[in-house]
Amino acid sequence: MEQPLEDTTTASVLDVHIEEAGYAEGKTTIRNIRLNVMPGELVGIIGPNGAGKSTTIKTMLGLLEYADYEVTIGGNGRYAYIPEQPVFYEYMTLWEHLDLAAAAYEMEEEVFTARAQDLLVRFGMEKVRDDLPGSFSKGMRQKMMLMLGFLASPDVYIVDEPFIGLDPRATKDFLKLLDDERNRGAGVLMSTHVLDTAERICDRIVLIHDGKCAAQGTLSEIRAAAGLPDASLLDCFDVLTS
After folding, report:
1. Which long-range CB contacts under 8 A does 214-223 form with residues at least 24 apart?
2. For residues 66 and 24, is the Cβ–Cβ distance under 8 A?
3. Is 74 in a helix, a strand, or coil?
């Protein structure tokens, strides 16, 4: 259902309007959720467990049968989804996974090789490029998901809980890559439970509670909605979800 923008002057790289969505006919899980991402912007989705964060992302990706929604992606309509749980083929090596993704993105061989090699070095995975991911640790598998997502430099990144399983060095490398992509003009929509990091890196925040958008905006605007002008995002989260 995602469509490239017809008007290339439109500012946002991602527009989402979910009227309602659920996992069974007549049973709505989320409703009336609107959000957008501007070029170079990082928008964070936060909320309690079961609030509807994952359902929102699944709806955007077209994975729910019972959904009334619209998604518009700017630029060439290309996006990358980085899931919370790593997905891989047991009998394909790390390099073969990267090669398969490059073929799906129709990347030129020289561009793919240079980009893939750079990502291997950045994430310290060059020594296991020809190994099967079934032998990887949880953190290494998450690194592989990040590498696959960053491979083709899309217009929009949709990232679900990226920090789970990452060590501090990998987290730093991931955030540096995000900064590089944002400087290029890519937009990022990221779901996360790590509120102190979200407070530090997100330009805007979307708080989902009970299947609806409870608050949305910059940290200052979230603080205003919570009535806590100097509070942390965690304190605002507690007030807005109680």
Report:
1. 214/47, 214/240, 214/241, 215/240, 216/35
2. yes
3. coil
Percent of all residues in the chain with a pLDDT value above 90, rounded to a whole number: 82
Identify whether residues 182 and 236 lie together within a single domain: yes
Q: For residue range 177-205, list pLDDT tens digits in order.
A: 999 999 999 999 999 988 999 999 999 99
The domain in which residue 134 lies consists of 87-153
Same domain, 125 and 218: no
Could you tell me the sign of the dihedral formed by the alpha carbons of 183, 188, 193, 195, in that order? positive
- Phi, then psi, of 191 in degrees rounded to 5: -90, 135
Residue 164 is predicted with a pLDDT of 82
Question: Which token pair is 148?
Answer: 């696959």
Convert the pLDDT of each residue in 36-91 to its tens digit: 999 999 999 999 988 999 999 999 999 999 999 999 998 788 899 999 889 999 99
Q: Which of 210, 206, 176, 172 is nearest to 190 (CA)?
A: 206
Is there a single domain that holds both residue 45 and residue 142? no
Residues 52 and 166 in one domain: yes
Q: Is 161 found in the same domain as 138?
A: no
Domain stops at, among 134, 153, 172: 153
- Pairwise CA distance, residues 5 & 22, whole Å: 27
pLDDT value at residue 4: 45
